[in-house]
Amino acid sequence: MAEAGNRPEDALSALGPLLDRLEELLEEVQGYEQPARDGVFELLDGIDALHRLAITRLASAIGTNADRLAADDPAIGWLFEAYGVGVDDVAAAVQALEPMEPYLNEHGGAVEVLAVDNGVVRLRMAGACSGCSAAAITLREGVEEALRSGLPGFVAVDVEPDDAESHPPPGPTLLQIQPRPA
After folding, report:
1. Ordered domains of the chain (ranges, CATH)
2. Any residues with CB less than 8 A from the CB of 113 and at least 6 apart, and which?
3. FRET label pair with 35: which of 20, 42, 105, 182, CA 20 to 30 Å apart?
4. pLDDT in tens, 6-20
5. Which residues on adjacent β-strands are paired with residue 125?
6. How many whole angstroms separate alpha carbon 176 and alpha carbon 174?
7. In this structure, how many other beta carbons lie within 10 angstroms of the beta carbon of residue 99?
């Protein structure tokens, strides 16, 4: 019999308040000045990448027992899910980008997911996005955000070099209004 405090249900009940507190701290970090906020997020991304690598290797080393462990212990199941253990990263990246498709298609463009390696998503800009002078904004404001929220362990985007001739975006271009620097 598992002693109190070591049972899977005990781990899961402790997880809720911890996750709530981490969410509160992330909200607090959003209020930091830009250099401090960027440093905190770079640190968190690095720790996350290290954990993802170790956890996915651990799950691979224990093989089919990983599924049993995840099913038997809700905390382990949460951890494996959070780090995408057993997830097809390419399929998950494609799914994360689905909300971007109508916008890209409306402008005659597309983004193709070529590969995912340790959280780095390799992409190709296609159609009207290939060579488009606004592609960098599309990547930063849309694609990276979609991947960050929809792909466990997302680290960065690596865009395949494009030899298409540079051109302005098709159709009317809207100006993205940004806050004035302090």
Report:
1. 8-82 (no CATH), 89-159 (3.30.300.130)
2. 90, 93, 94, 97, 121, 122, 123
3. 20
4. 665 666 677 788 888
5. 111
6. 6
7. 13
121 forms beta bridges with 116, 157
Q: What number of other Cβ atoms are within 10 A of residue 130's Cβ?
A: 17
Q: Cα(99)–Cα(104) distance, rounded to whole angstroms?
A: 10
Give me the amino acid identity at 97.
L
The two three-digit tokens of residue 47, written as one number: 């720790």
Model pLDDT for residues 44-73, shown as the tens digit of each residue: 888 888 888 889 889 889 988 888 888 888
User: What burial letters (b/e) apply to 43-82, b meaning 16+ CB within 10 Å?
Assistant: eebeebbeebeebbeebeeeeeebeebbeebebbbebbee
Distance (Å, whole) CA 9 – CA 119: 30
Backbone φ, ψ for residue 176 (5° rounding): -85, 115
Task: Round to whole Å and give the CA distance between 100 and 105.
Answer: 9
